[in-house]
């Protein structure tokens, strides 16, 4: 390749040259392609003689990557970029080692290998200018290997410091506990931790200071003036100038205290300080009445020299006040309280209030830092002394501001709620306590508006009861009806107060066909005074309640809400009548009246019947259930009858009068007489009388003639009768035989005589009947089979049929029977002694033979079957309950029989599944017993409920009788064997060698009744004997199996079920080789703190060594905030950016899912801070020999040890220099140090119990040694 330079003797290529053709034109040499270097312009070279070429010569080799694919210059660029990338990768590995403070042989070997591949591989590419010799490659590799060793083993040479500085400059951030990158510089070099400077100037004369004790003052309606304290030190003032800055206008006012007034103030002050040291300062009190910011402007002494006052100010503001804004006196339950507190004063304000419900306090509540929106008070950051120094500042921050604090809480309880303000405090420290006693010196405020109370009422409810569209109210026209509303409330009882009811009304004529309201429905309102009243309604139509409310609260309308009221038509009556005529005599005997009704059935009509001048009789027709009916008016006696229909009523309307409904008739029945009872002849006993009832008709009085005939003898009788009914009573019939009583004639009042033909006969008996028992086998007693009819021989005299009454003396049962034969049998079916009581034949009562009036009947005993009760056999609900057994267990029970053996028993065995209740199988089995007992084997092969029903029982005397033998049922429940199975058989579960939260459990399902007893067999890999794990009292059918960690071995194990028992005591042992699961136990990762201490400071690094397989997942909490972080290395390091408690709770590596529970707690403490003079630059002037205090405020954990310096006060052209350095210890959060020397005081370092900080330096951790707060410093 003529266009590519080759390596020369020195090992480096020559500059590429351009070959020209003999013709002088620039051209490519033999073998040159498009990648040859072009010739430079303006460069001329003499032509070279062309070397003769032989046909066998081969062209020289070029770059490994042909130039037409990638230009050599580009190849060099890419190779250099790859070299830079290798160094970036190398720097990253070195940075990780430096952060973790670790070394790595693996990384060193890795980079030596990579450098060797790169350095010795570059010449192979044959890129121009990069074809160095092997010796050069070896020297380069040796240099890189040395650099690799120095970097990966962190050999302390300046290169490491330079590299770290460079990397720190480029990547100045670390991962903090909050898992975000932060720069450690601002944390370690926080200049705000030490703030404040105080300059002390020594005055040539005395001094004065306003409000030396920094008290707070305020004015209100009760405190109209107050005294401002002015401390005078080593001087006798003759004039004092006070500057008042008006808070509202920010205008200045100078108040001059003249000599005369000042003398009085000094006299009063000296009198108050009588007995004190004369050299001590005295305090005068100047009374002011205006609000404002007061400053001590000028003090003149007796020599007319000005005493420099110390910089101080006092704010006299309006006292803070608060009130509960007026609100309505009534609320409803579940409303919001809607109360607001109005606080007025200098913000930020604090208020304390309390809530009382039904005279029971619910505790006090407080609000802090109250200030108007978009307003930030400077008092939240500075004191009032620091805000006002010269009198030219803006003091608008001292204006009183109003802040409204809304209080909204749900009123869940009815009753009296009261809000009351207890205390209010402003930003200056002025406190107004509304509950203090009279001897309290703090400002008091009038109690107007500090308390507001209201009554919380229950909400009403109502609904319609007993009326709807299907069951309307039916009301008479013009009548009113109560709207059937039922009242209740959100409380336990209805509200006994007026209710305002609103309802819609649609007349019945305007109602749509769907039964709803019309668009023109009328809205009505009504107020009900008590919850026992209801609205009155009368018009027909649809009524729907729409709302209900009381005086204070709206309520809810519950379903049903509607009621339909109807007005049926009023009842009316129309009558028509026709005569009823006697066909024989032609006289009217009554009326038939037709009734036509209008209204709602049933109807009821009342009318009066008046006969001639007799008193009218009121008659009720009774209920008539239809709209048409008829009645017959047939009086039994003659006369003129008037019928007046008076009233009518139906189901809806009450009695209403009827008008002009009158009927009249004349009744004249014909005279007659007849027996009331006719038919067969009567029979009578000897010496008895006979009676016959006769009814007479016509107009009385009557004369009745009758005849009594016996044995051809006739005897006539005549009797006058006044009444319609008459009883003919014969004389005593002393002769037996037939007697005839015939009606001969009857004559009425008018003398009309009617001959009669009716007659009645009576047959008189000659003797009385008799009854007595016969004998069976010579005695009047018998033993028979129960249920069989027993015939007792009975003998009777007289004429049949006979009526016999007898009694079972054992049961006191009286029986009657009718017998037709003289020698008959009395059939009985019950045992006992039977006594004949009465006998009566067809005519006469008889007598009982006292010697044969009783007969005894006894039963041969029937067979009985019973089951003896015991602890395992209980009678419940008419059946015997045998103690339940488990499936497959042997069991039996015995039955006892009494009677005449042998016994034959038939019983059925019914089986049904316990859950379904349907009979699954029924089998009938016979049983023959030669003795009085038998044993029944219970069936337990299948779980379920078995009923053994003994349906038939017979012995040698009695066949089975279903009437006398009640089936005996023995019921026994056979519990199924419990079951246990793995939900996911064959699955492999992972466990850790140490117990952790959230470990994987093995879900199982049980069949049976909990609690369960479970035995698990654990077969460890390589161990011949399995291990048993027992789990007791498993409360449910779903169970998450957890294996005790002491029974787990590293590696694989097989879990199978060995035995399961449920609460019934039933046990199941599964056969070997059943379903099983596998468990795999892994070793858990570990974490070890690299430092044994538990207390750290902000800016420290928390480092932990992790053991396990990278990468790791670290779980930790910081200030109760749970976090997790991924860590690719074996060292977990985080920067402590803020104070708090850091706890590593768990660790998981990539080898398994084991989460190792940890509890490594580190306490991170804040770096202490100190404020001198409130963090401001303060200047204090003192007299020679006087003194002042340096006020230090600390934050952190006591004790505090701090160092401060006194420097000379800088002047014009002079630099300040440190005069002395002092170290103090404070066990409190504030310290006052008295100084008398002039100079500039400032703090240069501070440390508390844990940490420290120095001005211009960085924070350090304070190692606590012997003694509290003492020890060494660790940077």
From TrEMBL:
Question: GO annotations under biological process?
Answer: nuclear pore organization; protein import into nucleus
Source organism, top-level taxon:
Eukaryota
Domain Nucleoporin POM152 first Ig-like: where? 207-316
Q: Which Pfam families match?
A: Ig-like_POM152, Ig-like_Pom152_1, Ig-like_Pom152_9, Ig_Pom152, TMD_POM152
Gene Ontology MF terms in the entry: structural constituent of nuclear pore
Residues covered by the Nucleoporin POM152 immunoglobulin-like domain? 567-669, 886-975
Please tell me one Gene Ontology term that the record gives under cellular component.
nuclear pore transmembrane ring
Regions of biased composition (Gly residues) lie at: 24-34
> Which residue intervals define the domain Nucleoporin POM152 N-terminal transmembrane in the entry?
71-155
| Segments of this protein annotated with the region Disordered | 1-59
Any idea where the Nucleoporin POM152 ninth Ig-like domain is?
1085-1162
Please report the name of this protein according to its UniProt entry: Nucleoporin Pom152
* Protein source organism: Massariosphaeria phaeospora
């Amino acid at each position: 390749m003529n266009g590519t330079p080759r390596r020369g003797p020195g090992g480096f290529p020559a500059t590429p040259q351009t070959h020209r053709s003999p013709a002088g034109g620039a051209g490519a040499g033999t073998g040159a392609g498009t990648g040859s270097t072009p010739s430079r312009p303006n460069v001329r070279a003499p032509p070279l003689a062309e070397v003769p070429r032989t046909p066998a010569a081969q062209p020289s080799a070029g770059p490994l990557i042909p130039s037409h694919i990638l230009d050599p210059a580009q190849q060099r660029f890419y190779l250099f970029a790859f070299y830079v990338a290798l160094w970036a990768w190398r720097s990253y590995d070195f940075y990780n080692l430096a952060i973790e403070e670790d070394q790595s042989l693996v990384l060193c070997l890795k980079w030596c290998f990579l450098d060797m591949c790169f350095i010795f591989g570059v010449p192979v590419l044959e890129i121009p200018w990069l074809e160095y010799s092997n010796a050069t490659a070896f020297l380069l590799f040796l240099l890189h290997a040395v650099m690799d060793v120095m970097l990966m083993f962190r050999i302390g040479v300046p290169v490491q410091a330079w590299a770290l500085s460079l990397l720190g400059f480029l990547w100045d951030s670390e991962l903090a506990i909050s898992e975000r990158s932060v720069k450690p510089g601002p944390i370690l070099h926080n200049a705000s931790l030490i703030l404040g400077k105080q300059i002390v100037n020594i005055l040539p004369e005395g001094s004065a200071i306003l409000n030396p004790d920094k008290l707070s003052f305020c004015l209100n309606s009760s405190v109209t003036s107050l005294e401002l304290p002015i401390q005078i030190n080593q001087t006798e003032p003759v004039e004092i100038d006070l500057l008042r800055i008006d808070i509202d206008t920010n205008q200045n006012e100078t108040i001059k205290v003249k000599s005369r007034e000042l003398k009085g103030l000094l006299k009063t002050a000296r009198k108050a300080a009588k007995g004190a040291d004369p050299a001590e300062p005295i305090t005068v009190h100047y009374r002011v009445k205006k609000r404002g910011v007061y400053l001590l402007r000028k003090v003149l002494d007796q020599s007319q020299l000005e005493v420099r006052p110390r910089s101080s100010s006092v704010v006299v503001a309006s006292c803070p006040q608060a009130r509960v804004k007026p609100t309505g006196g009534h609320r409803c339950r579940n409303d919001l309280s809607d109360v607001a507190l109005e606080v007025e004063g200098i913000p930020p304000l604090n208020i304390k209030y309390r809530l009382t419900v039904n005279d029971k306090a619910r505790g006090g509540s407080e609000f802090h830092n109250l200030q108007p929106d978009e307003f930030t008070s400077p008092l939240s950051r500075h004191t009032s002394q620091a805000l006002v120094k010269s009198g030219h500042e803006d003091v608008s921050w001292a204006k009183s501001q109003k802040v409204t604090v809304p209080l909204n809480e749900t009123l869940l309880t009815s009753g009296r709620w009261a809000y009351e303000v207890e205390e209010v405090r402003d930003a200056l420290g002025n406190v107004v306590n509304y509950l203090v006693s009279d001897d309290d010196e703090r400002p008091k405020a009038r109690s107007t508006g500090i308390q507001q109370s209201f009554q919380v009422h229950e909400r009403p409810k109502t609904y319609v009861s007993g009326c709807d569209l299907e069951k309307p109210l039916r009301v008479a026209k013009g009548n009113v009806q109560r709207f059937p509303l039922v009242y209740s409330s959100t409380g336990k009882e209805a509200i006994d107060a007026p209710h305002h009811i609103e309802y819609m009304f649609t007349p019945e004529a305007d109602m749509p066909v769907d039964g709803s309201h019309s668009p023109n429905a009328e809205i009505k309102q009504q107020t009900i005074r008590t919850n026992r009243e209801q609205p009155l309604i009368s018009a027909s139509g649809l009524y729907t309640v729409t709302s209900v409310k009381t005086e204070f609260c709206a309520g809810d309308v519950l379903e049903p809400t509607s009621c339909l009221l109807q007005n049926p038509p009023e009842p009316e009556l129309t009558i028509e009548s026709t005569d009823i005529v006697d066909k024989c005599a032609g006289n009217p005997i009554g009326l038939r009246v037709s009734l036509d009704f209008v209204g709602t059935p049933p109807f009821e009509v009342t009318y009066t019947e008046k006969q001639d001048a007799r008193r009218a009789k009121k008659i009720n027709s009774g209920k008539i259930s239809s709209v048409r009916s008829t009645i017959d008016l047939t009086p039994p006696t003659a006369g003129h009858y008037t019928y007046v229909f008076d009233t009518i009523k139906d189901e809806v309307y009450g009695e209403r009068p009827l008008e002009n409904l009158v009927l009249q008739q004349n009744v004249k029945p014909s005279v007659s007489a007849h027996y009331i009872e006719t038919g067969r002849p009567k029979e009578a006993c000897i010496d008895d009388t006979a009676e016959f009832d006769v009814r007479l008709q016509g107009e009385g009085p009557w004369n009745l003639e009758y005849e009594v005939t016996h044995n051809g003898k006739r005897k006539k009788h005549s009797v006058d009768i006044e009444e319609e009914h008459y009883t003919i009573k014969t004389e005593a019939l002393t002769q037996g035989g037939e007697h005839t009583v015939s009606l001969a004639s009857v004559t009425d009042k008018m003398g009309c005589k009617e001959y009669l033909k009716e007659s009645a006969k009576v047959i008189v008996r000659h003797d009385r009947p008799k009854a007595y028992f016969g004998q069976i086998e010579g005695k009047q007693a018998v033993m028979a089979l129960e249920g069989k009819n027993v015939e007792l021989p009975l003998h009777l005299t007289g004429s049949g049929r006979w009526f016999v009454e007898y009694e079972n003396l054992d049961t006191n049962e009286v029986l009657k029977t009718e017998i037709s034969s003289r020698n008959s049998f009395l059939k009985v079916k019950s045992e006992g002694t039977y006594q004949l009581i009465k006998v009566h034949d067809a005519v006469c009562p008889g007598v009982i033979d006292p010697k044969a009036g009783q007969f005894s009947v006894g039963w041969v005993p029937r067979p009985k079957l019973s089951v003896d009760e015991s602890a395992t056999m209980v009678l419940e609900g008419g059946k015997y309950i045998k103690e339940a057994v488990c499936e497959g267990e042997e069991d039996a029970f015995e039955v006892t029989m009494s009677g005449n053996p042998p016994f034959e028993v038939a019983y059925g065995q019914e089986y049904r599944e316990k859950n379904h209740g349907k009979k699954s199988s029924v089998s009938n089995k016979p049983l023959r017993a030669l003795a009085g007992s038998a044993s029944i084997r219970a069936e337990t092969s299948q779980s379920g409920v078995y009923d053994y029903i003994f349906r038939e029982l017979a012995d040698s005397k009695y066949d089975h009788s279903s009437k006398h033998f009640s089936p005996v049922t023995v019921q026994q429940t056979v519990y199924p064997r419990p079951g246990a199975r793995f939900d996911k058989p064959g699955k492999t579960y992972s466990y850790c060698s140490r117990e952790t939260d959230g470990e994987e459990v093995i879900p199982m399902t049980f069949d049976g009744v909990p609690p369960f007893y479970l035995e698990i067999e654990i077969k460890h890999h390589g161990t011949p004997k399995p291990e048993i794990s027992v789990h007791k009292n498993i409360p449910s059918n779903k169970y998450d199996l957890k294996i005790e960690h002491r029974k787990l071995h590293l590696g694989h194990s097989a879990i199978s079920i060995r035995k399961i028992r449920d609460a019934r005591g039933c046990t199941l042992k599964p056969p070997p080789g059943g379903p099983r699961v596998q468990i795999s136990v892994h070793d858990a990762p570990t974490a070890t703190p690299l430092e044994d201490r538990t207390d750290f400071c902000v800016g420290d690094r928390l480092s932990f060594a992790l053991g396990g397989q990278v990468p790791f997942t670290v779980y930790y909490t910081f200030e109760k905030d749970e976090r997790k972080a991924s860590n690719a290395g074996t060292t977990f390091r985080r920067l402590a950016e803020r104070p708090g408690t850091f706890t590593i709770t768990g660790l998981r590596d990539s080898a398994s899912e084991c989460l190792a529970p940890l509890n490594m707690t580190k306490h991170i403490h804040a770096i202490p801070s100190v404020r001198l003079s409130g963090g401001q630059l303060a200047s204090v002037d003192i007299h020679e020999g006087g003194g002042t205090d340096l006020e230090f405020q600390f934050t952190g954990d006591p004790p505090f040890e701090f160092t401060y310096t006194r420097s000379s006060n800088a002047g014009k052209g002079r630099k300040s220099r440190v005069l002395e350095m002092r170290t103090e210890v404070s066990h409190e959060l504030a310290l006052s140090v008295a100084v008398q020397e002039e100079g500039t005081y400032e703090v240069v370092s501070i440390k508390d119990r844990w940490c420290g900080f120095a001005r211009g330096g960085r924070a350090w951790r304070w190692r606590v040694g012997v003694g509290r707060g003492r020890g060494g410093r660790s940077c």
